[in-house]
Amino acid sequence: xxxxxxxxxxxxxxxxxxxxxxxxxxxxxxxxxxxxxxxxxxxxxxxxxxxxxxxxxxxxxxxxxxxxxxxxxxxxxxxxxxxxxxxxxxxxxxxxxxxxxxxxxxxxxxxxxxxxxxxxxxxxxxxxxxxxxxxxxxxxxxxxxxxxxxxxxxxxxxxxxxxxxxxxxxxxxxxxxxxxxxxxxxxxxxxxxxxxxxxxxxxxxxxxxxxxxxxxxxxxxxxxxxxxxxxxxxxxxxxxxxxxxxxxxxxxxxxxxxxxxxxxxxxxxxxxxxxxxxxxxxxxxxxxxxxxxxxxxxxxxxxxxxxxxxxxxxxxxxxxxxxxxxxxxxxxxxxxxxxxxxxxxxxxxxxxxxxxxxxxxxxxxxxxxxxxxxxxxxxxxxxxxxxxxxxxxxxxxxxxxxxxxxxxxxxxxxxxxxxxxxxxxxxxxxxxxxxxxxxxxxxxxxxxxxxxxxxxxxxxxxxxxxxxxxxxxxxxxxxxxxxxxxxxxxxxxxxxxxxxxxxxxxxxxxxxxxx
Length: 515
Fold this sequence. Notes:
By secondary structure, the protein is of the alpha/beta class. Helix content is 43%, strand content 13%.
């Protein structure tokens, strides 16, 4: 949580008894580094074989690119680009050059400098569940995303420090698509002060979004161009295709010096081969093709390797998450990203329809896979349900508990002489207890993580207090967070600076997405 929210007593409304205030602790979840060494699922030889096969795919089979401008860039860079078939065959020398020019460390700037991030190997950055057309909570039920739910989701993102980057959790479908990006950018700038996202939905919307960032943050063109102020996710159309909006997004973000995160969504058994290794070959090839286009548009442009792959349920065709395949592919993707030397994006998530044990288990498995994989950027880390069709408020709160637990692991153990606790060990006789030792009394208010939603009381106390589940407890927490929310400093001013631009562009008809 934010510093103020973390020290606030955790209250559950409607219960017979209120919890006592959680112990005050000084926490900093804003800048995390991975606490553990990355783990392998592939041998070094297997990683090299996947990379080699991906290069062969690009050279011999090629990738279909639907944007003529991208065709021209590939051809100018030395690729074999056939206009009639729209196929592009990319040589390994082009890929090697692109990987050499892509940056290894990318500063991500925010309106609040204290929220700035460094996107690089070893960093651990969490972003919420994103891209959801629906939302759900225990009070109002499941419903289409709206401007209200989009802004409520942003308030939740802003209120917890373990969420490092804003995300489009709830798509505001009550706003026409040609105007939606204005509301989404206004919401981010007025309700948050963390690094921003922009959808790659056509050149007009991208240009508008960049203009609003410059206006809202008071940046000159040169200041905007010299730093990374936002990012977008580029999903290839697996297998082996880049559509017009995605190709245009790669080009536009590269030329503006903003970060594109190239992320194939390869579901083994559907859009990718059924084997883990075969799906990785396709994912790797598509990712390298996108990175190459980025560097052809502007050498040195900030770009991220990405992978969000799992399997489908072979009975229904539905995507599955938190599965052994999902875990293996996440860890192997980390190996491939390190093989090419780039920071990278992964994801957690859940296929469950509600915030139940399945939802928690799948998301936790995905989070631990990303921890083992040393993912730089973990998308869908909180709130993602139904394979991305719904953002859940209670799910978000319970996932925050998991993220804060991981964040606590990022603080290294000091192992100083006092931490070895000789005096405490000497003070307590066999069969005694350590509750009242000086060693404990000096540390009791800061020794342990205070749960956000988990109830650690015994059964009798729990029943007397209403016997709530963690999902029920989460309802009271998100309601309190929204009720107590205060916009970050400067949010109103940023909104004022972009208001005229939004009004003028709306009157002119907005910027429809690219067909």
